[in-house]
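DM from R.C. (forwarded with permission)

"hey, sorry to bug you on a friday — could you get me a structure for this? deadline for the figure draft is monday and I only need the backbone to look sensible"
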Amino acid sequence: MKSKISLAFDNCKKEKRPALITYTVAGDNTKNISLKILNKISKHADILELGFAHNTPIADGGQIQGSSHRALKNGIKLKDVFHIVKKFKKNNPSKPIILMGYFNLVYQNGENNFLNSCKSSGVDGLIIVDLPYPENKSFANKCKKKSINFIQLLSPTTSKDRMKRIIKDSHDMIYYISMLSTTGGKLKVSPNKILQKYNLIKKINPKKNLVIGFGITDKTISSLKSANGLVVGSMLCKTITNSIKKRQNPVTKLDKVVYNLKKKII
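My reply, with the result:
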């Protein structure tokens, strides 16, 4: 049986467009608002990434750090993240949710406990930023047994030989980091250059769903729409920050932003 992540990509391919993948942090700026945001933006997004906050992130830029800081300040715990997912899935059972974060929280919780919680709450996939290949092979196999996608990462510096091995071992989605930067950095490479590299990776296994993340905003998204999927995160976290500063409703603001992003890739 195909995973919900695979089905989401199939649906987008039928519509001849990339999957729109959003990233927000669980509990930003409250648990309740976080859930409301997911419910609202899921009408436009094809796949939802939900970050579990960490106080010492290595790949997150300022915007996502700000979101994580607000969530931690409001007392978000891992059990709350699973609770948000469970509540979301009750109303949106077919919408894929990918949890994204750092391995320390998985390790502290115990791999099996963590994966059991993922399974019972309805998590469809995992991105563990600091668990690279091949060190992630054992954990990725555990994920597969639970029918949870483990999403491998590729970067501009990944060698071709290493890429081949990672792609061979990958599940239903692979994440290509567009540039050497933390999240939210201004796109340092032209969209054409990114797509050239992207197309070379796709040739290794054209059947694999390969998405692009880092540096994607409303200004860059339409020039990358030949990809299988595009991830927008920092721009959404920034929208929440600005809404809070201006005492506006972050839920309605994000709804508009994600709706406009979707329009640019149709």
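R.C.: lifesaver. The domain at 4-265 is CATH 3.20.20.70 (TIM Barrel).
me: no worries. Residues 250-265 form the longest helix (16 residues).
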